[in-house]
Amino acid sequence: MNIKNLDHDEVNKFDELAAKWWDKDGEFRPLHQINPLRVDFIEERSSMKDKKVLDVGCGGGILAEALSKLGANVTGIDASENTIGVAKSHSRSIGSDVIYIQNTIEEFISSHPNEKFDVITCLEMLEHVPSPNEIIKSCSNLLKDDGNIFFSTINRNPRSYLFAVIGAEYILNLLPKGTHDYEKFIKPSELAKWIREAGLNSKETIGLSYNPITGNYWLGKDIQVNYMVHAKKENI
Predict the structure, then answer these.
(1) How many Cα atoms are found within 13 Å in the side-chain-facing hemisphere of 125?
(2) Which 3-state string (H, E, C) describes the chain?
(3) What does the pLDDT read at residue 183?
(4) Which of 103, 154, 218, 228 is spaced 20 to 30 Å from 31 by Cα?
(5) What is the rounded distance in angstroms from the CA atom of residue 217 to the CA atom of residue 210?
(6) Separation CA 215–CA 206 (nearest Å)
(7) What are the structural domains of the chain?
(8) Contact by Cβ (8 Å): 86, 78
(9) pTM, whole model, 2 decimals?
(10) Cα–Cα distance list, 189 to 132, 133, 140, 195 (Å)
């Protein structure tokens, strides 16, 4: 097991941005804007009521808090100490029950060997680690039989480079410069392969699109830039 499946430059980058997670008009504004779309997508495929949920790479807790409000019992893990500190502070300020732990998923498995979850979310995290396939395997190990798992990431092609890096970071200033490394973007075929190798079954892939003129986001068939996958752990 690779306890050090970390890119320390990535962790340091998010450490420096930690205090800005809950500024809805700041660097993480896009995450706040797309969060309702993602939450609806997840809830429609797996009701959150009384579900045991793990949010891997939870950041400041934007998704975790939303799922908790739907009745889920949520644990959020993230490798960034500063980011988890912000998540805990915000959680206390709103009286949330979400549990936040500074851990990689490998460290979490080592310290919680018997934990299993009904639902696992791992959104916008796979493109920030050296071995995303290992993250997916670890997620599968923590998922209950018949459990639901959700991944989101960025496709790797010229269009995604134009929109997710040049456009989002340098022209529209939607994200801090240097947020993404194009070489770490993941093609849907690669993600599908890793999901199969982890013993999971892909159920649905959907794209996330953005109109820079209207400022609107929506889910649809276009998976050329951002996309999201729903998979299950099924006994065949």
Answers:
(1) 27
(2) CCCCCCCHHHHHHHHHHHHHCCCCCCCCHHHHHHHHHHHHHHHHHCCCCCCEEEEECCCCCHHHHHHHHCCCEEEEEECCHHHHHHHHHHHHHHCCCCEEEECCHHHHHHHCCCCCEEEEEEECCHHHCCCHHHHHHHHHHHEEEEEEEEEEEECCCHHHHHHHHHHHHHHCCCCCCCCCCHHHCCCHHHHHHHHHHCCCEEEEEEEEEEECCCCEEEEECCCCCEEEEEEECCCC
(3) 87
(4) 103
(5) 5
(6) 20
(7) 8-154+183-205+227-232 (3.40.50.150)
(8) no
(9) 0.89
(10) 14, 12, 18, 10
The string of pLDDT tens digits covering residues 22-55 is: 999 888 888 899 999 999 999 999 999 999 999 9
Q: What one-letter code names the amino acid at 195?
A: I
Cα 59 versus chain centre, distance: 8
Cβ neighbours of residue 43 under 8 Å, at least 6 residues apart?
70
Residues of the chain with pLDDT under 70: 1-4, 6-18, 167, 169-172, 174-176, 178, 236
